[in-house]
Amino acid sequence: MIGELDIKQANQRIRKSRERKHILKELEFSTIEYLCPRIPKWITPDKLTIIGLIGSLMVAVSMILSVSNPYFLGLAVVGFSIQWFGDSLDGRIAYYRNIPRKWYGWALDINADWISISLIGLGFYFYLPSYKFLAFIFVLAYGGSMIITLLRYKVSNEYIIDTGILGPTEMRILICIVLVAEFFIPNSLLTFISIGSIILITMNIYESVNIIREGDMRDIKEKRAKKMGIVL
Fold first, then answer.
1. For residue 157, what is the DSSP state?
2. pLDDT tens-digit series, residues 32-50
3. CATH code, 83
4. Taking CA atoms, which of 46, 155, 184, 219 is between 20 and 30 Å from 14?
5. Over the range 116-135, which residues count as b (16 or more CB within 10 Å of their CB) and which as e?
6. Cα gap 205→13, rounded to integer Å
């Protein structure tokens, strides 16, 4: 039986596993802290990753089915909920149980995220037959933000997946709200993807410039240190 002290230590490991800045940070952490001790032992971090991918696949399938029946948009909301459950808890449950595999988990998470975005983009592709190019732009914009996250990690050693006050959780909630609105107001999703992609691309460009500048400053710093015989 896990004692109160053990639970507190486990929760501290969860919060320290990744720096977050998004607006729903505290609510999400509290939810994860509530769920972690209630997840059966046989559900491993890898299984949670698979659950997250199943949620993404459900989103894609529901979007395709929604072309002929808009009621399937509700299934996409369920899919995003399942995706959040798997994607948010796979790494956190590992830290909670004190069995983290930092580099394995990091590599697996990046690949799972890319597959998820591709699946969701595929769903948008079929749902918006007259605007298929927007699905490509959406995947391009979100994929670009993933690349920027990796660049920032390499240059500054900071692994931050949030864009300002918005993180993946907020994005899922926004998309779910738009999916519900789409049922009552057609083309809501089209408008959201169009505006969202433009905003995301603009932010990607801004972040890219900052990272390049930071990389330049790091090069200068390392060259100066090398001349002085200092190892950074």
1. S
2. 989 999 999 999 999 999 9
3. 1.20.120.1760
4. 155
5. bbebbbbbbbbbbeebeebb
6. 33
Cβ atoms of residues 150 and 110 within 8 Å: yes
pLDDT over 60 (residue 198): yes
N residues, the chain: 232
> Exposed, middle or buried, 68 (CB in 10 Å: 0-12/13-18/19+)?
exposed
Measured from the Cβ of residue 39, the count of other Cβ atoms closer than 10 Å reads 17
What is the token pair recorded at 14?
């969860």
- Tens-digit pLDDT profile for residues 71-87: 999 999 999 999 999 99
Q: Is the pLDDT of residue 89 over 90?
A: yes
Q: What is the DSSP letter of 70?
A: G
Phi, psi of 107 (to 5 degrees): -65, -40
Give residue 199's domain range: 4-227
C-alpha 160, offset from chain centre:
10
How large is the greatest C-alpha to C-alpha distance in the chain, in angstroms?
69
| Identity of the residue numbered 198 | I
CB-based contacts of 227-230 (< 8 A; 24+ apart in sequence): none
Structure confidence at residue 5 (pLDDT):
44
